[in-house]
């Protein structure tokens, strides 16, 4: 009888978490769609909401293979499209798609880093990965301005180098959450100083503005080229991390328990970290240093669905794009005609949230 009661309670609890996850996913989709709709309706040539709705629901566009072929190959959109459709699909929709990719990559990479380090204060930004990727991207822009095709590789290399330095600094016969976080802060600070130093090599105001946009995180001016740059790594990394979510659950049990269950802990940890680095580097390569998304989103999802990574990663996949899309709408429209970098808005959201986490976990304890 007792066993049956416990089984019923556990089943009820799991059903409750699944319902919360479904609610989170539905709410995130609603926020993302609403933000995208507002985003594509505003610009130097304002589009009435009714016209925007007609363009976005026009099946002759949505199911036109020539439209998607032009997006994927970089060719011109079909001549049959009217002016409103061309403005929305060629100038405004790329920003929406890129923002969604940035959000999903940063959110999921943050969730992975928090599991790998067993510290809910970890994120690509805090651990220096974003700083390393940003430094590599900035070096490429300053000294190899025409080689934009290597940006993802440069970002991945810089992020991997930063994370390796963090581990090297934190390693003392093993690592601990507090050492990893503190080492990440040190590495991020050093790389930020190097980024600032690169500004002295810029020889024009336009180049300075571009560098500032990268170091603060901006989606201004992104196009389908940036979408094509980010979509392939995203389609590789995100499914792999969704499949690997059960390994993240095992890592949370601690190294000894994970080894007793037959897991090669170091190989799994570095493999998952590599995927998280690639995800963060992909976001940096197309939008610069958009901070705190990898910290805020996983923790917010955790408060809804618990620490089971099979649910947490799914929640992050949906909440990440919703947060970045909403933040980008605020960044673009709050002070029109001035466009604020989206990284400023996410920083205003994430900074106070980080302070809240520090006060709640003053000893940087593991979770």
Overview of the molecule:
- The protein is an all-alpha fold.
- It is built from 16 helices and no strands.
- The mean pLDDT is 84.
| Overall helicity | over 70%
pLDDT averaged over residues: 84
Order of helices and strands: HHHHHHHHHHHHHHHH
Distance between the first and last residues' Cα: 33 Å
Can you count the helices?
A: 16
Quickly give the structural class: mainly alpha
Strand residue content: under 5%
What can be said about this structure in brief?
The protein is mostly helical.
List keywords for this structure.
367 residues; 16 helices; globular
Topology:
Elements lengths: L1 H40 L7 H8 L2 H4 L2 H9 L9 H35 L11 H15 L7 H20 L6 H22 L6 H12 L7 H20 L1 H8 L2 H6 L4 H23 L5 H13 L3 H25 L8 H19 L7
Helix pairs in contact: 1-5, 1-15, 5-10, 5-13, 5-14, 5-15, 6-7, 6-8, 6-9, 6-13, 7-8, 7-13, 10-13, 10-15, 14-15, 15-16
């Amino acid at each position: 009888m007792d066993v049956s009661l416990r089984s019923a309670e556990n089943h009820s609890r799991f059903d409750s978490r699944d319902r919360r996850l479904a609610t989170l996913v539905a709410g995130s989709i609603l926020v993302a769609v609403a933000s995208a709709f507002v985003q594509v309706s505003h610009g130097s040539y304002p589009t009435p909401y009714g016209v925007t709705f007609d363009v976005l629901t026009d099946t002759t566009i949505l199911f036109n293979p020539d439209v998607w072929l032009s997006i994927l190959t970089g060719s011109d959109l079909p001549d049959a499209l009217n002016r409103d459709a061309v403005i929305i699909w060629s100038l405004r929709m790329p920003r929406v798609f890129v923002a969604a990719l940035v959000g999903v990559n940063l959110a999921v990479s943050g969730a992975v880093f928090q599991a790998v380090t067993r510290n809910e204060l970890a994120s690509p930004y805090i651990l220096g990965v974003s700083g390393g990727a940003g430094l590599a991207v900035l070096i490429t822009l300053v000294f190899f301005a025409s080689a934009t095709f290597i940006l993802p590789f440069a970002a991945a290399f810089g992020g991997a180098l930063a994370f390796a330095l963090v581990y090297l600094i934190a390693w003392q016969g093993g690592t601990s959450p507090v050492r990893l976080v503190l080492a990440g802060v040190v590495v991020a600070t050093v790389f930020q100083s190097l980024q600032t130093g690169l500004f002295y090599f810029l020889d024009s105001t336009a180049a300075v503005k571009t560098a500032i946009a990268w170091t603060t995180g901006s989606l201004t001016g992104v196009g389908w080229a940036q979408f094509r740059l980010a979509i392939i790594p995203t389609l590789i990394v995100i499914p792999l991390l969704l499949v690997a979510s059960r390994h993240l659950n095992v890592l949370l049990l601690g190294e000894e328990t994970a080894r007793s269950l037959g897991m090669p802990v170091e190989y799994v940890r570095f493999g998952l970290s590599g995927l998280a680095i690639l995800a963060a580097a992909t976001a940096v390569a197309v939008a610069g240093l958009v901070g705190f998304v990898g910290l805020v989103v996983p923790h917010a999802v955790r408060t809804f669905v618990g620490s089971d990574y099979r649910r947490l990663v799914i929640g992050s996949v949906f909440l990440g794009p919703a947060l970045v899309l909403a933040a980008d709408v605020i960044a673009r429209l709050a002070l029109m005609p001035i466009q604020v970098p989206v990284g400023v808005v996410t920083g205003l959201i994430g900074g106070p949230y980080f302070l809240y986490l520090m006060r709640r976990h003053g000893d940087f304890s593991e979770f």
